Amino acid sequence: MAGARHTGMEKEDLDLIPDGSRSRFFKVTFDYYTPRAHFVLSELHRGRARIGQDFGKIPLRLKREIIRLANVMISEYDLPQGGVFSIHCGSWTTNDHTFHAFICVDVDDYIRLFYRRENEIPNWPSRSFVTREWKASRNPSEYVKNVRGYPYKEYFKAECQGIRRFIEKEQRREDEGKAKHRRVCPTIDENYGNFEGFLVVYHPSEPRVGFVLNTREHVNQDDHLRALDAMYKFAEASKLTNLKTKGEDKGCHICLVLDQQTQGFPLNSAQRLLGFIQVSGTKFYKDFCPEDAKESWFLDFGSREDYKVYT
Asked: Which is it for strands 208-213 and 193-195: parallel, antiparallel or unpaired?
């Protein structure tokens, strides 16, 4: 589920952060390299040492700055569908040399903002922006066509096959009297546990682990920071943050929810989803899905025609 490679190269570009909210450390741009409905938040080098992609090593003040900018993009541009801030970790990271993350928004909101600002992009349109990720059209004037037609990579069939193989393997081990798979995740109540002050919930039909607060009140930067740190610790304990590993089950997206949407998690009226960890279907089934929910979860997940990850 790793995104396409972002080089982190410094170049003249349109910084979408409003003038009064600009950052000394980061910029936010349209994604020209991989034309999808998300903004790229990346570091400004300007002679400084690179921050790097390991979120666990980023200083507190820069984490706060990252959260501030993600919220600024949603509020200042009044994006009606809200958005999700996504950090790629472990094997799902494509570039560990320079920090970048994604502010994922509704495709129509993204395109409206693009049309509003495209005349300000230096040298736009130009063939210099066209990459191998422009699948729908190689015409530099057809960026929007590429955004709408981006062919998100599909791992769905392979994941379903992997889950079925795991089920068969576990059944054989049980028949032979051998120990079954030992979960690789933090030790918490598997049905409804507390982790770092958040309720941990499991999505009923998608490979996602949610982090919930018992409040519908306004959340602030400190709440978002606590959620990001809690999700990172959970992912780290689940062996999902090592940048040197490979394989779909060794990475994740840590996602901060920037609106009040539930993302399909079954919450009550007094709860609010702060974020979720997106993992592969096989990782979720093996290590996160509650035992008494595995059959129904896989029935729902496996009955889809496909499953695409947009974060």
From this structure: unpaired
pLDDT tens-digit readout, 108-158: 999 999 999 999 999 999 999 999 999 999 999 999 999 999 988 778 899
DSSP letters, 1-27, are ----------------S-GGG--SSEE
How would you classify the pairing of strands 198-202 and 208-213?
Answer: antiparallel
Q: What ranges in 198-302 are assigned the alpha helix state H? A: 221-237, 281-283, 294-302
> Whole-angstrom Cα distance, residue 18 to residue 75?
11
Contact 233, 252 (CB under 8 A): no
Distance, in Å, from the CA atom of 65 to the CA atom of 56, rounded to the nearest integer, reads 15
Among 284, 277, 278, 241, smallest CA distance to 90 is for 241
Measure the CA–CA gap between 196 and 294, rounded to whole angstroms: 25
For residues 282-295, one letter each, b for 16 or more C-beta atoms within 10 angstroms of the residue's C-beta and e for the rest, the string is bbbbbbbbeeeeee
Helix runs in 238-280, H state only: none
Q: Find residue 285's DSSP bridge partners.
A: none
The residue ranges of every structural domain in the chain are 26-149, 153-303
Strand partners, 247: none
At 189-205, the pLDDT tens digits run 554 578 999 999 999 99
Residue 26: both structure tokens together: 């980061």
**Contact, 56 vs 87, CB < 8 A?**
no
The b-or-e profile of 194-206 (16+ CB within 10 A means b, else e) is ebbebbbbbbebb
Encoded amino acid at 277, one letter: I
The token pair that represents 69 in the structure block? 């900018």
Is residue 63 within 8 A of residue 240, CB to CB? The reply is no
For 180, the token pair is: 């079954």
Alpha-carbon span 51 to 48, nearest angstrom: 9
